[in-house]
Fold this sequence. Notes:
The chain is mainly α. Helices cover about 75% and strands about 0% of the residues. The model has no long low-confidence stretch (mean pLDDT about 90).
Amino acid sequence: MMKLHTNQENTLNVLPGDMKLAAELYECCYSCLERARLELRRDNLDEAERWITEFQRCKRDLDELIKRKEEHDKLLEVVELMKEKGINIAVILRKGNE
Length: 98
C-alpha cells in the first residue's frame, strides 16, 4: 500500500481511471526529491542531479494526467452550455460520424 502524503488528494486532480498512476507518479516525485536531498548532503552533486532529472520526468508525466483532466472538464462545460442553449449534442455527434 502506498504511503499518502499530506494534501496528496488535492494535488491529484486527475480522471478516476488515472488515479492509480497519478499516485505512483506523485510518490516517484516525492522519493526522487528525498533522494536528491540525501545525495546533496553527501556532497554527491552528480547523483543529486540524476535524481532531480528523474523527478522532472515523473512531474512531467503527472502534469500530463492533470492536463488531461482539465481538458475533460472543459469539454464537459461546453456540453453543458450547449444543453442550456437547447443544442442536442447527440445530433452533432451523429453528424460528425457520417
